[in-house]
Amino acid sequence: MSAIVAAYGPIDESDVQRMLDRIAHRGPDGVQIQQTGDDTPAWLGSRYLAITDPETGAQPVAGHEPGTWMIGDGKIYNYRRIREKIGTERFRTNSDLEAALLLYEAEGIAAFEQLWGTFALVLATADGQFAAARDGLGVAPLYWARRGDTVLFASELKAFDEDWRPEVEPFPPGHIWTPTDGLTPGPRFPARTPVLLTSRAPNEEPPPWVFDAIRDTIIRAVERSLDAVVPIGVLLSGGVDSSIVTAIAAKLASERGWTIPTFSVGMEHSGDLAAARAVAEYTGTDHNELTYTAEDAIALVPQVIAQLESFDPPLVHSAVPHHLVNKLAAQKVKIVLAGEGADELFAGYAYYGNYRTGETLHEELLSTIEGMHISGLQRVDRIAGAHGIEPRLPFLDLDVVELALALPPEWKLLGPDRPEKWMLRRAFDGWLPDDILWRRKEKFGEGTGMNEVLRAHFEHEVTEAELQQEASAVEPPLNSREELAYYRIFTQTFPGLDADRVVGRSIET
């Protein structure tokens, strides 16, 4: 997790500094700005969170060529392999970012397609080369705006000056931008086509080795997520996804001689809080929890919308408890593991039950995954970033994504004997109590009690007549009084932004 700001073309250093200052929360461990480019100026600035190499991993990172610099957000998971490929003696730091930069010096733009991880990267050289790249899933955030000869990049919307905001839009995941070639496909999206056991009939049971493969791949992803020299914990909602991550992380930590902390929040008597306690006791974590009231949650909404950079009601519902649990975790750790991604890979939402064929379900899963960067992943990133901690998402490890998308989608269809995410649950049979492992899926806002509380309050902030008058402010139109209340807060907080360009919205609000 870091805050990055970059500019290609004419701009003042003070503009870059001002943009960085607005997102200082993302990187509390240091700040630095570097200018390079003999003919066309480029500025790279970072406020960084020291994770992989706290001693020498400051940004921007310098290359071997004079005037070559890189900034980045996220994590390059195959950086050790890259170091071995290039030669460890060439490295000045242990930073994963330096591995990406030296690979670029060796192979140019093709280097980005070899990176495996969650990242947003920008580099510039003294001779005028400039490139920006974002991982294929868009886990690491990146926005950009183009005007005349100047192109600006930043980790969050709030970084941009108001006069630049009408031009701001998300930088597309899985792409590279250079001044010479423009926007081109780059870091790969995991394979989209089911390829495993496609000759089997939809009603056939998957062979046991399929569940072994799912389990082993997810365990390896959690193990990679635990790679750090700073304290790590797990956000434990009490749902099956975060409970599986907790069970794996607790086992791996115990084998290494330490106890992993878990963090949960909820209103008193909430289902999520009770389930999280049961999981923590079963897995032996160092559990930390916080209870809050409806009044606490309502009062947080303006602050949460400012952090979230969205007015989408389902995101707001889940972002309020997410704010509280990240705030709790930040008191003890600098990295948190979370369970996002499992629903989209293994068909975890109830509406997936409307699909009757594997083909149509698979297309919907792909569409949902491709839209996560401006929905669920945005919540995870922004709220963690607001508290200066880094989120890691084992279910969105590329190995897990590729395996899940390779499975015959007919196996993921929901039915009387196959509830949401039944393949994932069965793969971890015995790792959790049955009442947790097969617990009914609840959205984070439901299990914590947020949906009812916030909807009831903010619907009374707006009349039906006001909704009819103002609904057409965005496309598609605002469809509830609650959504209009959030939209008003958003526009007051971020004047100038084009909501249609930068805000992802749910079908149902």
Question: Could you characterize what this model shows?
Answer:
The protein is an alpha+beta fold and 509 residues long. The chain has helices at 13-22, 79-86, 96-107, 208-225, 240-255, 271-283, 294-308, 313-329, 342-346, 358-370, 376-386, 398-406, 422-427, 434-437, 444-447, 450-459, 464-470, 481-493, 499-502, and strands spanning 2-8, 31-36, 42-48, 61-62, 69-76, 117-124, 130-134, 143-147, 150-154, 169-170, 175-178, 182-185, 232-235, 261-267, 286-292, 335-337, 390-392. The strands form three sheets. It has a six-stranded antiparallel sheet with strand order 2-3-1-9-8-10, with helices on one face. α7 packs across α18. It starts with a strand and ends in a 7-residue tail after the last helix.
List the helices and strands and how they pair.
Blueprint: E1 2-8, H1 13-22, E2 31-36, E3 42-48, E4 61-62, E5 69-76, H2 79-86, H3 96-107, E6 117-124, E7 130-134, E8 143-147, E9 150-154, E10 169-170, E11 175-178, E12 182-185, H4 208-225, E13 232-235, H5 240-255, E14 261-267, H6 271-283, E15 286-292, H7 294-308, H8 313-329, E16 335-337, H9 342-346, H10 358-370, H11 376-386, E17 390-392, H12 398-406, H13 422-427, H14 434-437, H15 444-447, H16 450-459, H17 464-470, H18 481-493, H19 499-502
Helix pairs in contact: 2-3, 4-5, 4-12, 5-6, 7-8, 7-18, 8-11, 8-16, 16-18
Structural class: alpha+beta
Q: How many β-strand runs?
A: 17
Number of helices: 19
Reading side by side through the largest sheet, how are the strands ordered?
2-3-1-9-8-10
Overall average residue pLDDT: 93
The description of the largest β-sheet is: 6 strands, antiparallel
β-strand percent reads: 15-25%
Helix content: 25-40%
| Separation, N- and C-terminal Cα atoms | 30 Å
Shape: globular
